[in-house]
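Comment on both lines for my students:
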Amino acid sequence: MELVLGTTKVELLPGRAAFLRTSASLVVSDLHLGKSATFRKRGLAVPEGSSASDLSRLIQLLKKTEAKHLIIAGDLVHSADGLSTTVIDALRTFLKEIELPVTLTEGNHDSRSWLSKHHLNFKTMPSLEIGDLLITHDPADLLPDQAGIAGHLHPGIRVRESRRQSLRIGGFYLRDSNHLVLPAFSEFTGTHPVSISETDRFFAELSGKISEIPASLTRR
């Protein structure tokens, strides 16, 4: 599924990512690495492996798209409590394996996690401009008159099954035709319901393909 934001073509990919073909940039958001470790430290019996699984999926997407640049639109990590040696080592191994420039537009979880003290091999900045496209973490920081990509919201909608039943689906939320909010890349992160207006669009992965969900099917 391809969209045009400003003058930039953006391909929405199965696997919760977007690809900017002109610059060969893969854009993802909200990996929340170490989230399961955070929950275990707080006494909840959450299984290990979610961070490793997410990084493995990301490697496959980078290979499939032949990306030359990885952009993470915020919340690479979840919390300082979750940055165990295992998580940091997995992240170091990932960065070494992909051998690509990585840019993180710092999210609210990143800023509270003291991530910089680990001296990882990527660039961190508040936002990034590629052509006429602004990439940042919080959609509230996108400019009304500039096309942009953000994360943070973990957007989801409810699709009506019947008068009393509905199904929650996460996906890509296009606001006012020029602001794209990415789904959370993390498989261990839920969705937050968004309301779709007449000028908004919503896209989700269905049967391995990205499809638009008609606004008429959403439950408000």
In short: Residues 42-47 have pLDDT under 50 and may be disordered. The chain is about 20% helix and 30% strand.
